[in-house]
Amino acid sequence: MGTFHLSRRSVLAGTAAAAAAVSLPLAQGRAQAAAAxxxxxxxxxNVVQGGTGFITGVLFHPSVRGLAYLRTDIGxxxxxxxxxxxxxxxxxxxxxxDWNLLGxxxxxxxxxxxxxxxxxxxxYTQSWAGNGAVLRSDDxxxxxxxxxxxxxxxxxxxxxxxxxxxxxDPCNSDTLWLGTRHDGLLKSTDxxxxxQAVSFPAAPSxxxxxxxxxxxxxxxxxxxxxxxxxxxxxxxxxxxxDGTTWQAVPGQPTGTAxxxxxRAAYDRHTRELYVTYADAPGPNGQSDGSVHxxxxxxxxxxxxxxxxPGGPTGDGxxxxxxxxxxxxxxxxxxxxxxxxxxxxSLVDTVYRTTDGGRTWTSLKDKAVLDVSETPYLRWGNDxxxxxxxxxxxxxxxxxxRHVVYGTGATxxxxxxxKRWAPQIRGVEEASVRQLVSPPTGTAHLLSGSGDxxxxxxxxxxxxxxRGMASNPVFGTATGVSLAAAKPSYVVRAGWGDHGxxxxxxxxxxxxxxxxxxxxxxxxxPGPIATxxxxxxxxxxxxxANPGYRSADNGATxxxxxSFPKGxxxxxxxxxxxxxxxxxxxxxxxxxxxxxxxxxxxxxSGLSTGDSEFQLTAAPGRTGDLWLSLKGNGLYRSTDGxxxxxxxxxxxxxxxxxxxxxxxxxxxxxxxxxxxVESFNAVYRSDDEAxxxxxxxxxxxxxxxxxxxxxxxxxxxxxxxxxxxxxxVQYGDPVR
Length: 735
Known about the structure:
Blueprint lengths: L37 E2 L2 E5 L8 E6 L7 E5 L4 E5 L4 E4 L14 E7 L2 E9 L11 E5 L7 E4 L17 E3 L7 E4 L5 E4 L7 E3 L12 E7 L2 E6 L11 E4 L6 E2 L11 E8 L4 E7 L10 E7 L4 E4 L7 E2 L5 E2 L2 E7 L7 E6 L8 E4 L7 E2 L5 E2 L23 E3 L7 E4 L4 E4 L4 E4 L9 E5 L8 E5 L3 E5 L16 E9 L7 E7 L4 E4 L7 E2 L14 E3 L6 E3 L7 E4 L7 E3 L9 E2 L7 E5 L4 E5 L7 E2 L12 E4 L7 E4 L5 E4 L7 E2 L5 E8 L9 E7 L5 E5 L7 E2 L14 E4 L2 E8 L5 E6 L2
Parallel strand pairs: 1-56, 29-33
Antiparallel strand pairs: 2-59, 3-4, 4-5, 5-6, 7-8, 8-9, 9-10, 11-12, 12-13, 13-14, 15-16, 16-17, 17-18, 19-20, 20-21, 21-22, 23-24, 25-26, 26-27, 27-28, 30-31, 31-32, 32-33, 34-35, 35-36, 37-38, 38-39, 39-40, 41-42, 42-43, 43-44, 45-46, 46-47, 47-48, 49-50, 50-51, 51-52, 53-54, 54-55, 55-56, ...
């Protein structure tokens, strides 16, 4: 299981586009006047889930005990705090317009200057994504200086688990090297402030790998190349000894099993360079691979592959996989660990040698896994796996028995080579899609995410004890809905192998699958809603399919031909006969007053074709609707969608939710991700959106946060924000 992501083809400028006039019926009443927002101090923390995403790299500092860095594909970078025994996020300051920079392509540290750290950022190389950037810090990531690049990086593309593509030159701390996917090799001579392309003997191709790794070997630098076909005469490993000219390394392995150099590590005691190879960059798609070492003093290559792929699995299958991570023991010559990758049948492992690769031991074979701190790793009551997508692998230079490796969901660590547990505190990488804060019950939050389904958060400071909602287990959640007048009843939908919808009668603690589901639920499960008393369900299945209705708790379903295809249904929180939906293809609000049997078009003339919209019903009121239309602003209806009035206090709204009213106020607190000023931020209003208070700050922005927001109906001021790679953030006012 890897990291789900949202491909954002555009980001909000939050200015003139929102001011365009819209032709629609306007509600009567005085227009709300815009005002400069106030600011409020908030304390922000992660709702703890525990990892939940692909760890693409981990880097121990060679000169400082207890100092390490970690990178993810869409969730930023972290520094290990040895005293606190947790990871500290380093890139939460990146805001909405910089969402693409939450993907960390590579990290680098300076062995001679322990406080220096560098990050190369950029999630995608497609035309709709912005260019990459390099961050540089002199205080271990507490503060940063930024250099924007003229090229794109691909931290969430194939090859994202390959080696570090960023390196401090071993001969000069002011010189840095940066490998790219489509633009060759870049060099900086002013500690990353400026970058220039340098001559490199290999030419990029459409595969989008380019430089896969950079590693210092004595006073030389080696570079892996991922765009070679691996055949004889097509080298994929190069080196420079003078910092100017690059040459192919003689005698390097060729063939399918050595097509892509994935990672490399240098044993300075034996002067041997270990390289892991695969037939594809990974993390998916590998079926062959090998491990080789180069004695740099003689140029002799030796294959030291622990187990060659292609053998039988015992059940009639083939043991196909590649090799991923590699790390050497700084204290013991010839002691090395390597990992398999994409080995689904027999499950990936980490091999260890103490004799330079002559013999290997699989650490999985005697491993004892303890996932009590992050129970979701049981994946619905199954036993936890040792790992998959193992390309990040680290060996503590000050503790030979401290090994860590990343997976598609966590970072496992051991200090005795036998007992393993997630070493993940502080890291949260879920791409969160839905948030529900129940008005009663043990849990203050239910969340729906990509890859890890739905979670019941009985505590905000600990990973849910029940793990992922099971019966059935969903990969990606597509909808969560609570019956407003019967909050013990909850329904959910998503991508599952054993059903795509389920209901709960205890607020989301335990679940039962629907007895039946429409045929398209397996291929296109979409948003789902339950009405106020839980007697009717509406389920949407994309723009190619009609919506479906059930009045018997999912036992039978009937087509609703008048429901707008692809719309997200919402229920009136008071009247169980009312449902609403917004049709983005026509810019029209639809409503049902017969419990979802039929829908009627109401207010129209709104923006069309934009998938980033949200229709929300204010709690405790009938027909009080709020419509967020991205850069086209925020609208409100108090008559069930018959008419809409534009809210003039903000000019961009992406997602909106409600929480407990302020003391003395009669209307719930309104929370919004949008633009009141000229940029996107998190806001609260205590006066029905007449005025707003910004409640996040420049250190807490988390990139793109437009999927969901909700207040807590039991705690005034508390708000939950869904992020696309930093899990659920929750904020409380500082009093």
